Every structure is written in C-alpha cells, then in structure tokens.
C-alpha cells in the first residue's frame, strides 16, 4: 500500500511530468508490452493479433483501455530510478563502484523482441529460425539450450547497432562498469535450429566482432567492460577481447584439473583479468569441495596446503585476493562459508535458480569475525 500511495503521489508531481516529456523509448515499449501481457491470456506475443504486429490503431486502443496500468508501470520505473540514483550516489561518495551484469541475449517473450523484430533472426510470422545455446561443455554433456532468439547482426550493423547502443547507454545509467555474459558470442556464436530439444546439433556462425565495438565506442566513448570468456574460447575471441582492452576471467573452481597449464591456476593469471572464487553458475566453495573428485582434491592440497574441509571457502578467498589479477571477486555465500543450498544458479536447469538471499537471521553487525578476516586479507594483499 505504501508503494502504491507513493506512485499515485508521483503521477501528479511536476518532476514526473517532466520525465514523461523525455520518456525513454524502451520504457514506453516495456509498459505497453506489460499491459498487453497482463490483459491477454497468451503464451507469447506471437499470439497477440493484431497487437503482434504493433498496428497503431491496436496500440492506441490498448493504451486507452489499460491507461491506469501503464501509468502505474511507468511511475514505478521512475520511482525505482530515483531510488537507484540515491543508492549509486551514496556508493560513489564511499568510493564504491557498482558493477552490473549484462546477458548477451534476451528472451523471446520480451518487449525487446516484440518492438525490434528486424534486429532478430525471425521468420515472416515472427518465430525464431535459430536460437541460442552452447555446445557440450563442463556444465552439460548435450550442451546448453538457452532458446533465446539470435540477433540478425547484418541488419543491426546496417543501422550502426542502434539497439545495442541504446542498451549500453541504459547500462551506463545504472552501473559504473559491467560484465558482458557470453562475450564469445560477439566473435562467434552457436546457432541451434529452432525446435531442437538439445543444443549439441547447432553450428558456429561469425559474430559482429570489431565492427560492433567500433560503432559502440564511437557512440558512447571508451567504457569499462569485463568479458565473460569462459567455455569454448577460440583465438578469435582472445583477439577480440584484447583488441578492446577488456579483462577476461579466471575461476578458481575450474583451476585444479587439466595440469599446470590450466589458465585458471593462479600462476597463469594475468594482470588484466578478474579472478573469481566461483561465479553465479558455480556451486559455492563448500559445495564445490564436497563434490570434487578425489584426484582434484589432491591437486588442491598440493597447490594450497592451507586447505582443509573446514576452511575451503576462505582458502579460495585468500587465493583470489593474492592473485596478480587486477580485480578479485568473492561471493557472499563463500564469505559465509555456505553449502550447496545457497547456490545461485545451476546451468541447464529451469527451476530453483536466482532465489538465494542473505538469510534474514544474518545481520551485518553479526559478521564482525568475517569482516576482520576479510579486512586482514585485503590489507595483506594491498587491495584496500
């Protein structure tokens, strides 16, 4: 009720009226999409005749019929933006940078695809011809089938990658820097025929490569991007990342198999890199350790003699912070030494993901021991 009261007050304010004069195109599309989705019982926008094709008359009707919904939707977005700017401003005063995370693809049933069909590989009826995924890897023997529509890079290049430029500008409104997930898809991407049940029967296609970043940097200037370069990484991916100066990634949970040449081992880390104890796609350090094959455990014992079953989380945290890599990332789950029940995401699964939150019984005032340990390591490795 408090939120709705604030939204209603906001709708009648001068500052909100000014905001509407400069309404971002993405917000108008998102509000219309949400209103239609809220009023039509359909699986996806492809069933929204005649709204599927965005006929002006049909859009005008939905706006008039769903005016209250649309106004509330946009006001809530404005309210979030107002609150977020306060958070970001406070963080900047404390010398804290906020890093975002940008998935390379968007879902089919989204305002992005509905409002920008020419930017995606769709047939004349609006259905995907190919969808996203990756070939078999450490996470899945049959590959990962993401099922997001693929970009029509030729069409995008023709208009200077305008949709992507808007997307990046929006990200810069929210974050100081951000990671592009599946960066390799900008060099070459895995295309799976639509309707496939597994991803393993796809094929590689060339991405936009430097043409993409040339257009992007021309539009927004040089920006801080972290490249998620995990999985099948070929030389063209490495060349693209280095050509734009973006740091890649090293993940300690991937480090202890494959011999001394494994790029995730600390002695192979590079300065222009971000090292993680584990990413959102990994188990927690405790969960990883409990399921690690005995052979790899022996390698861990040799490489990190301080490891024991009781302190594996903090052993990985210390190793990440001691790396030559310019940036180290540790998860709150590992700081709290939590097990697999606190895992954020399990790739190639549909349920139970992205639900973990810091337990309500944990207050920051109760973390004095963890705070002291973290501060000691940050001081020791000159990361304060």
From TrEMBL:
A Gene Ontology BP annotation from the UniProt entry: carbohydrate metabolic process
* Superkingdom assignment: Eukaryota
**EC top class, as a word:** transferase
InterPro entries for this protein: GH, Glyco_hydro_77
Keywords for this entry?
Carbohydrate metabolism, Glycosyltransferase, Transferase
EC numbers listed for it are 2.4.1.25
Q: Does the keyword Transferase apply?
A: yes
Gene Ontology terms, MF aspect: 4-alpha-glucanotransferase activity
**What is catalysed by this protein?**
Transfers a segment of a (1->4)-alpha-D-glucan to a new position in an acceptor, which may be glucose or a (1->4)-alpha-D-glucan
The signal peptide annotation in the UniProt record is none
PANTHER family this protein is in? 4-ALPHA-GLUCANOTRANSFERASE DPE1, CHLOROPLASTIC/AMYLOPLASTIC, 4-ALPHA-GLUCANOTRANSFERASE DPE1, CHLOROPLASTIC_AMYLOPLASTIC
Q: Which family does it belong to?
A: Belongs to the disproportionating enzyme family.
Q: What is this protein called?
A: 4-alpha-glucanotransferase
Organism (species): Aegilops tauschii
Q: Lineage in the entry?
A: Eukaryota, Viridiplantae, Streptophyta, Embryophyta, Tracheophyta
